[in-house]
Batch of 2 targets.
Target 1
Amino acid sequence: MFELIIIGGGPAAVAAGVYAGRKQIKTALITETFGGQSIVSNEIYNWVGTKAISGLKLAQDLEEHVRAHGIEIVDGERVTAVAKVDGGPPAGHFSLTTSSGKIFETKTIMIASGSRRRRLGIPGEDRLDGKGVVFCSTCDAPLFKNKDVVVVGAGNAGLEAIVDSIPYASSITLLVRGTELKGDSVTQDKVKSHPKVKIIYGAVPTEVLGEKVVNSVKYQDKATGQTKEIQAQGLFVEIGSLPNSDFVKELVTLNPGNEIVVDHKTQQSSCVGIWAAGDVSDVLYKQNNISAGDAVKGLLNIYDFLHRNQLTGAHK
Amino acid sequence: MKTIKVYSTPTCVYCKMAKEYFKSKGLAYSDVNVAEDDAARDEMVTKSGQMGVPVIDIDGQIFVGFNKSEVERALAG
């Protein structure tokens, strides 16, 4: 039986893990991979204390740091279900099941499972995933040399997908649902003025077509209701993220965006014994530094909870 | 010794992770940059049936993406 299980491998999970180790709480951290979503960033300039760091280096540093603190690390595993045992804490506990069918028992849980890429949910998207439909533009943009690509997403990620594609693609069409771009103005200017780039506003993607690979993308023109088709070999989807909260949706209160609702003073969820921090929580700003700080806040509250209910052997 | 080939692009972090993993295990691998090498890109698409990177070929066993536990199993098997 663990006193605490931390779910996730990003900045929030690692911050909680480091503090849990130093507090001598009997802890396991379960994650598929380390680093969180920033792992695909080429350079991160706002990780406090470090002028610039690549996403990959940050991931490696986070993993190294948490491994140095004497907690049990279970990597390559995803938590798929959480259930209360004997009514849950403080009298009972929780049982966690992982993707490979392993069971873990714990008195408390810190959920720091972050979020995953949002999909369009249109016909052809799943079937042609990896066959022209791209969810990691930074990774795959170089594969679309001399091809026509469509990018969906008016935020920074969408604009950066265009910047990544400019050296390779022959044309780039950006479909924007609304009437304006949302990303940083510096990137907006770069994108708007480039001769390869065409921006279509009020455009809602409706279907991706192609037999074996992507051939075209259909969208609806919101103003006229007309459906139009663009010939393209690539569709880059950059429309934000969805919290990884499915495995606890029966236990904790989620907001309409499926984020775990927490008390922002303590990071406690609506379920006694479960805390959440980082992008899976209903925190207003999704930032590495905030995730780490919120997780520390949560961990200190977990430490109090364990002691108050005499559930820990730490410091005895 | 298994033959390992990584199809990658210079901008792909998961490709770097895969290569660093093989390096850390002291395993030799060949690395092809499919952003430049069109023939290798076609070969990758034929082998994996898709166009995303990385694609890892371990003695003919094909993996799309880098999943450490899958790769560990393939290396052990």
Note: The two ends of chain B are 12 Å apart (CA to CA).
Target 2
Amino acid sequence: MVQDLLSAQGLRMDGRRHNELRQIQCKLGVLESELFTHKNRCDGSAYMLHGNTKVIASISGPKHPSKSSGKKDESFIFNVRVKFATFSKNGERQKVLKNSKKLGEIEINLKNIFKSVILVEKYEKSQLDLNIEVLQHDGGSEICTIVNTATLALIDAGICMKEYVCACTASLTNDGLALLDVSHLEEICGGPTLTIAALPRIGDHEQSVAFIELSQKFYLKDLNKIFDCCQLGCEKIRTILDEAIRGNAYEHVNSDLTSN
Amino acid sequence: MANVKINLLINKPKYSAHIEESNSRIFTTGEVITEQKDFMRGHGTYLEDGFIKSSVVGVAKQINKLISVVPLKSKYVGEIGDVIVGRVTEISKKRWKIDTNSRLDSVLLISSINLPGGELRRRNAEDEQSMRKLLQEEDLLSAEVQNVYTDGSLSLHTRSLKYGKLSQGILISVSPSLIKRRKNHFHNLPCGISVIIGNNGYIWVAPIVNVEEQGGGFAQCLDPVSKGDRETIVRVKNCIQALSACYVMIYDTSIMYAYEESMKYDVKELLNQDTMYEVGFNAKQRILQLE
Amino acid sequence: MAYNPLSEAEKIFILHGVQDDFRNDGRTRNDFRPMELQTNVIASASGSARFCIANSDILVGIKPEIDIPSPNKPNEGKIEFLVDCSANALLDFEGRGGEELASEITNCLKLTYSSPYAFDLKSLCILPKFQCWKLYVDILILQCAGNLYDAISLAVKCALYNLRIPRVTSALLDGGNVDLVLSDDPSDCDRINAESLPILMTVCKIGDYCIVDPSIDEENCSTSSAVVGVSGNKITTIKTISGGSFHADTLNNLIDLTITTAKYLNEKLLKSLKQEERQMESNKIQKCSFLN
């Protein structure tokens, strides 16, 4: 049976309580390239440290579709590329993955998630490129960090969206207590893991979920519990993102955009 | 001897504008701005459940009943009458495609330019073939926004002597939201050089040229620029980058303030981040005192 | 190369600037842009560094692995480089163009590190003929603002300085099998002497003059450029990049220029690395945050 994920004192393996997130640090506009005047510059970027995972996301566009993209029928072209650095994982060096199934899956998921929140009609005929580089990770739920970093980068680039997208994971102990933000250790110990990417609304609006993924099995009666836990996590992450975004914004606003 | 300076990132000070109580309220993505009832939604907003919500992060702006949110950083969204600086990316039949830092390439029709010397255009094939003589790929030009198409792309015109091909100088690119909208975007600064502050965030710094002598704005002067002018141009360029790094609105006065603040340093010292921020912040302080 | 369009007039402006010894950002022909460095940025790598020259932003991570020496060099270890033109840098790198540039830089690094004066591969040997260390040096270009060769070689040097290879306490040959014992103590490790590790230096010829540390625009204006690998007083490699040709005399001057400049740069770099190390020790910060 699964090893107990919670000690008698109610602490997890890394000393967190059941409803605590791992450490999150984030920053917008890390790849500032105001020196470039060509079309292929980086228009927005963000960096996030979540637990042991470090991710950089950058945006290029919206811009005139490059000729190589060729798809003329599609009104809005959204390219996503995810890469893992060869040194990103502990232990053995990772092979350079190109067009692997794992990356392809993450890319498609990201595409679907963000196409549902970006106000696509504003970007007809143009192309938007999202590039993700995972610099460091300990396996497991890096998709959450990727989604959260991508949200920040899109906001940094001034892309019109309906809402922040926040992603989070949750698991379940043997006693049926939901655990927030599953670490790699907890994941390999074998609890079920639920991953969601949600649009947590401000106020008392219902959250809507853009992405959901479940690994392993548990009783249906527990689903609500674990789902609620995930949603709570998304709200917490939203607060963290919001703080970073507002902090970044106030630096700009000192120069008073309203004087226009 | 070479000049080499290596800084340690662990010692990098965190430059942040000290946050003051600001009247302007920041709206973030998804935040409700107001009920829909009496307002119209503009750029950077969307409608949901009867509320106008912000779709970007920025400051709300209200003009009569139109509410829009200006994002801190974004591509240029053109308006008719804006002055822009752009670069030719492609020549096709009867039109130039121009990169104006917008979402889509802008268009300059051959019918929207004044030919050199005020010559009238002969509408024939030869005329179209000689387009490259006027403007070729990668040339820079200043122009005005004539029209905004429904898909958001811009059509430009250069039907004034002040617009046309740009000659020697330096192009700087900043966020379009940092450009202050003013009556005049062409300035001859008191330090003896000229700047064109494009609404699209492209800024052109160049020696002063006499417009009348240029005859229609497609001739170029390729004589060496004097060392004095060159120093001033580069200094102004570094100052504009300092302003941009400190998020100071860019217009003639702020550029001159930064220029004056920078005088105690060598031009190349302005590349160092601490000097750059000092110049930017000092200029910002002086602007705040002005208000 | 990274593509940044420039009109003829802009190019002429840059050309005259180089002639006047006053470049487009105020530097003289021999000046470098401000640089920044941080080592130990990636916890999952045994050695890592981030190095920036202005906006050219490079991240290097090194992982050592145990390998078998190649039969013709039984008492030498191995080192392998891989440059990744991450799309974060410039999307021009996407597709073939990026791969070409990446393999060009990778080859140049390989060449310059293959000289025994520059890097002693023997120190990576554990048990001749049977076991050696293979260093995988992986390079990510986060952002490019010109002068990639210099930035990458400096970043690699910093990461090698930062590298900690686990110490092998005993290596025994038992029949045909090798029995390795690695030290349990993570602080007990071998380091590499970084002092004479080579630096690549790009020199661009614009008009009649040579400049160091070219920006993207200057790279576009140059008629010919060369990369010289310098280790101490010796050059370990020389390679022309992009088209164009040099006059033999120019080449001689160019090599003199790179040797003196690289020597000075090397001193500064080692000083900064040592200063960082002292600070990290005295503050006891085990901070591993990549961007602070």
Note: Chain B has six helices and 18 strands.
